[in-house]
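Page 42, continued from yesterday. The earlier attempt failed because a stray header line got pasted into the input along with the sequence. Redoing it now with the clean sequence only.
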Amino acid sequence: MRKTFAAVLFAVAAVGAIGATSAVAQVTPVGVWRNVDDKTGEVKAEISIAENNGALIGRIEKALGKDAKPGATCDECSDDRKGKPMVGLDIIRGGKKAESKDVWEGGKILDPENGKEYRASFTPIDGGKKLEVRGYLGPFWRTQTWNRVQ
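This time it went through. Structure tokens are written below.
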């Protein structure tokens, strides 16, 4: 009986350790996120972030919110994204993991509403459930907190 109890206890502990490993693996910007407008609190879009050769790439997967328009394009963009559909639009390019901390920096993020591109950093917080996305323009910055889609 004690051996059976010990075996069950060991199995439960092992499954718990696997779960903890999975949680640690989620401390990355890679995944699907819902961005929230920092002024209105409204969910605006779902953004998928992937890693390609060590650098981040993120694109809009779904436009959400009351202002979402099917077939909308990035008319304010001034580069190769001008006139491209918002859904599928690359808004994150670059960004590599810093050696000393859980932050990805050196990338760029596009605000498709005004067509401006900003230097950006991406920091997973709350065990990877949230992502602090910070856009920089010179010495000024703005931070949004995105929520991971489960």
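Notes: The mean pLDDT is 85.
Reminder to self: strip header lines before submitting.
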